[in-house]
Write a structure and sequence with these properties.
It is a single chain. This protein is of the alpha+beta class. Among the domains are: 49 residues, no CATH class; 98 residues, no CATH class; 109 residues, Nucleotidyltransferase, domain 5 (2-Layer Sandwich), CATH 3.30.420. The chain contains 11 helices and 11 strands. Strands 4, 5, 6, 7, 8 and 9 form a 6-stranded mixed sheet that branches. It has a 3-stranded antiparallel sheet with strand order 1-2-3. It has a two-stranded antiparallel sheet with strand order 10-11. Helix 2 crosses helix 4. It starts with a strand and ends in a 56-residue tail after the last helix. The C terminus is likely disordered.
């Protein structure tokens, strides 16, 4: 049996319960019931029963959703960690500290945050993903996470040795570099004022050096005081390679700020290690001056191997980086274009200010000419209420041995008192 919907022109379709059967080798069908008057929910329920389903009473729900947690990103990160054998390297099975450390690593990848935030994200009551459930951690607090980190610190030499056995062999390259990060607080004994690589000047720093395999896989890490220079961290890494990892011959690769001439002389050569680094600008300038480097080498090639008496027993690889040259050219052009824009803006500003300054000067000159009386006698604008044309007086108006008297209007007597500023009787 099945339910069929039959179109009925302008009327609603007819819903029929039908049955198919065979007669004389042909498939025929007959209508058992007309369901057109049934509610749609009843029709769908009957349709599900005919397909082998189970009828659920309408007064209760089929499913109750208590909580949903994201799981896809957890499955990807945790599955990758288990695929590379990270759990076996961290510690033995059935160890809660190991599971907590693994949870911290995966949390750092998925959603970086503080230890308090990680504890809340792993606990069942406040979980933000299925990570805690996948590792079977249960309730987690921040004190447990700090205890797990102390356990991890004690396991660090064994973990680094296991990684070195897996990724390092004699004669391989070893990559080493140093970085730093600022930190808040005043209780860390390693936090010191030093060079800030992240632009946070005036803050406490911690310095850390990372040792990597040729493919970039981290092998060992060590934290130093924040005011430790990069070359000063090299000795401990050489000792680690020779004593802990038992490597007799490796090639140490570092930048020119790390593997300096002093470190090569005092530490690298004495340990029997080879090295790859870059020369500083003064050494390259000396090679250019001595003629050891000829720029014509780069007419046909981008790399050349040379020797120089200043570096006995060493091979110098001279490289031309076209990408770096193009980048420098682009930066120079951008700098010139920015300079041209600044000059144009300054010229436009000066051109706008020049007429205004000329107008102010002309107004000042006109004001001075208006205040200049005939014969050179000047008056302040605050000493009179109105202007009166005056004629210059000659010396006959002076009294004997006296100073020139001030002029007053004819209908007013001469004032014998001292002149007061703002007096209306004075011109």
């Amino acid at each position: 049996m099945y339910i069929e919907s039959v179109p009925n022109r302008n009327s609603p379709p007819a819903i029929l319960l039908r049955e198919s059967y065979r007669q004389d080798g042909k498939v025929r069908k007959r209508t058992l019931c007309n369901l057109s008057d049934w509610p749609q929910a009843h029709i769908e329920g009957l349709r599900g029963v005919l397909k082998g389903g189970v009828v659920i009473p309408a007064e209760r729900d089929a499913f109750t959703v208590a909580r949903t947690l994201p799981h896809g990103h957890v499955a990807a990160a945790l599955g990758t960690a288990r695929k590379i054998g990270l759990e076996r390297i961290l510690g033995p099975d059935d160890n809660r500290c190991r599971d907590l450390v693994l949870a911290l690593i995966v949390s750092r990848i998925l959603d970086p945050g503080s230890k308090l935030a990680a504890a809340r994200a792993l606990s069942p009551a406040t979980a933000t993903s299925s990570l805690g459930d996948a590792l079977g951690l249960g309730a987690v607090d921040e004190d447990e996470l700090y205890t797990a980190l102390d356990w991890l610190h004690e396991r660090q030499p064994a973990i680094e040795t296991a990684l070195a056995k897996r990724h390092l062999t004699n004669g391989t390259l070893v990559l080493y570099d140093v970085s730093s990060s600022y930190m808040e607080g005043r209780c860390c004994p390693l936090a010191k004022r030093g060079y800030s690589r992240d632009g946070r000047k005036g803050t406490l720093q911690i310095t850390y050096g990372l040792l990597c395999a040729p493919d970039g896989c981290p092998i060992a890490i060590e934290v130093f005081d924040g005011n430790t220079g990069d070359p000063m961290t090299l000795a401990t890494q050489i000792e680690k390679l020779k004593q802990r990892f038992k490597l007799d011959h490796v090639v140490l690769v570092g930048d020119r700020g790390m593997i300096t001439e002093a470190r090569i002389t005092e530490e690298v050569r004495s340990a029997g290690l080879d090295w790859i680094t870059a020369l500083r600008a003064p050494a390259i300038k000396d090679l250019l001056g001595s003629g050891a480097i000829q720029l014509s080498l780069f007419d046909q090639r981008d790399m050349a191997s040379i020797t120089a008496p200043d570096f006995p027993g060493e091979r110098l690889i001279v490289c031309r980086n076209p990408d770096l040259a193009a980048e420098r050219t682009r930066k120079r052009q951008d700098l010139l274009a920015a300079t041209e824009r600044d000059l144009a803006r300054i010229q436009a500003s000066v051109a706008r200010k020049r007429p205004a300054a000329r107008h102010r000067r002309n107004r000042a000159r006109g004001r001075r000419s208006d205040q200049q009386a005939q014969g050179g006698q000047a008056f302040r604008s605050g000493n009179h209420r109105f202007h009166a044309p005056l004629r210059a007086k000659d010396g006959s108006d002076r009294r004997r041995g006296g100073n020139r008297r001030p002029l007053c209007r004819a209908h007013q007597p001469a004032c014998r008192g001292p002149r007061r500023r703002g007096d209306s009787t004075w011109l």
